[in-house]
Backbone:
């Protein structure tokens, strides 16, 4: 048997600048959690689902998957469809889980930038081409969500004024216990990204939670932090209690 050799001792640098440089390199030159958060936000611009841009944080897609598997919503509503990648994701997950009876409802004022594949994918799901803040839009989806456990995703315009109105209109539709109301892009305006964005979804969510209607919801930190801190909806995975 060959003689055992002592482990080689590798000298470690003691100079703080050298250590900092090594740490930067090992973390791909990101210097803080905020830098990593910014990088994750940039990466979502390249995220696709079945070849269609999905514009979602990859970790959030996994969170949505878990919510559907564990919570089994009876309807999924999304305001702000854009290219349709997230719509395809939700529809594919429902198909994969044999939840064919669960409708997906996509709402957007414009449809010309939705990829044709998303429409072809829709089967019996519902597309509503209207302003999500119009009362007739709310009335159109009310029969689908009444008394149902739902997953409601607010992902259209992200200014505080717009999200304030979305929450006033759509939160009252989320009435069943253990339903979810998810407000996208509450990370804007320095929370921690896009510091110059101005008051946005995060401020709207904070204000909503202080209202009488908001007291029916609690931020679900279990799902928010399940895959680490990176989410476009910090403090905005709202569970109906």
Residues:
């Amino acid at each position: 048997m060959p003689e055992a050799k002592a482990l080689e001792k590798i000298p470690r640098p003691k100079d703080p600048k050298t250590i900092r440089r090594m740490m930067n390199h090992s973390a791909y030159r990101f210097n803080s959690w905020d830098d990593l958060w910014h990088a994750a936000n940039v990466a979502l611009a390249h995220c696709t689902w079945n070849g269609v841009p999905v514009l979602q944080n990859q970790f959030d897609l996994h969170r949505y998957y878990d919510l559907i598997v564990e919570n089994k919503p009876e309807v999924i509503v999304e305001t702000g469809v854009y290219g349709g990648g997230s719509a395809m994701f939700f529809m594919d997950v429902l198909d994969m889980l044999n939840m064919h009876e669960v409708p997906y409802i996509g709402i957007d004022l414009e449809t010309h930038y939705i990829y044709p594949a998303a429409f072809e994918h829709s089967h019996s799901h519902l597309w509503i081409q209207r302003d999500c803040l119009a009362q007739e839009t709310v009335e159109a989806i009310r029969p689908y969500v009444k008394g149902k456990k739902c997953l409601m995703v607010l992902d259209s315009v992200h200014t505080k004024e717009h999200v304030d109105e979305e929450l006033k209109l759509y939160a009252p539709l989320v009435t069943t216990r253990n339903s979810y109301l998810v407000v996208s892009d509450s990370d804007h305006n320095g929370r921690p990204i896009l510091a110059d964005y101005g008051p946005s979804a995060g401020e709207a969510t904070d204000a909503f939670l202080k209202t009488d209607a908001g007291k029916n919801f609690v931020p679900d930190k279990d799902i928010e932090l399940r895959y680490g801190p990176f989410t476009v909806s910090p403090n905005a995975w709202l569970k109906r209690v």
Notes: The first strand starts at residue 48 and ends at 49. Confidence is low (pLDDT under 50) at residues 1-14, 19-30. The chain has nine helices and nine strands. The beta strands are 48-49, 52-53, 75-79, 104-107, 126-128, 150-154, 180-183, 217-219, 237-240.
